[in-house]
Amino acid sequence: MKKLRITGILLLFLTFTMLAACGPGSDDKKDSDGQKVEKIKLGEVTRSVFYAPEYVALEKGFFKDAGLDVDLQTTWGGDKTMTALLSASVDIALVGSETSIYVHEQKPKDKVINFAQLTRTDGTFLVSKEADPDFTWDKLKGSSFLGQRKGGMPQMVGEFVLKKNDIDPKTDLNLKQNIDFANIPGAFVSGDDQYVQLFEPTASIFEKEGKGHILASFGEASGEVPYTVFMAKESMLKKDAATIQKFTDAIYKAQQWVDANDAKTIAKVIAPYFEDTDVDMLAASINRYKEQGSYALDPLLKKDAWNNLKDIMDAAGELPGKAPYEELVNTDFAKKAMKK
Predict the structure, then answer these.
(1) What are 259-282's pLDDT values in tens digits?
(2) What is the CATH code for 124-222?
(3) What is the residue extent of each domain of the chain?
(4) What is the similarity comment for this entry (predicted)?
(5) How far is the CA of 206 from the CAs of 11, 49, 267, 311, in angstroms?
(6) DSSP code per residue over 234-263
(7) Distance (Å, rounded) from C-alpha 27 to C-alpha 24?
């Protein structure tokens, strides 16, 4: 049987860690109206402009208006984020949907459920060392390509797009997958690889600084997928349904706000989360994502998008089981939020 990705760390926690209920609590804190404020520990897989609506919900006070005090933590990587969720270090995780599928195949007593979608396309771009205004995908053949972690959504989408363009990632190029996510940009700059797969704003920063040139969007080439989704353990969705609903309501409000406002306005709001990036660069990155429809307009994770995710995983040889939509996705909270 094929070895499942991120299984080692997950099994350690599933087997040896006491996953005791450690849900959100009020801590007797009250808002200006005297209502109790519930604390939520939220873990995001990385810090990215790709998650703009999340930061908008925090900065515009949408969570606060819903009676939530959200403590945002960046957990740096799908395996670490899922471990944090399973061990109750965080209550809610923002991470790629594929991680919930990997956990599901371990048959945990407390399943991880996707309940609110944040992004609906891949968020990476193909960046090259040299400018190429006449770029076509077939030019990658025979090149050295610095990809993302094997088994993660960026890499699986990357391979899916390459195969769509008649490129076998195993034989038609020198594909490297041994660099940690956080170190990929630096490895590209210091190394000899001709191409790399990068998120924003790094891709635009590289282009501005002359370190690379954006040639294509993997998001545009791969279609709609539930790329990053808010998820929680099934027990929390049952025990703290009202809290999850408040959280989803705030996210939907932020999604609508992002859709209604221009990139520069959004950039000014989320700037505190990207202190080393100027507002104009943030705006350029946000605009790129808005133009290709990366930000989900609502939190509803649709079955067609889920099936596309499974096709991408299957093409990469990473789909470990049937991954039933009905078992791993809860659309009740999204639907209620959209009715309000």
Answers:
(1) 999 999 999 999 999 999 999 999
(2) 3.40.190.10
(3) 7-121+225-339, 124-222
(4) Belongs to the bacterial solute-binding protein SsuA/TauA family.
(5) 38, 15, 19, 32
(6) HHHHHHTHHHHHHHHHHHHHHHHHHHHS-H
(7) 9
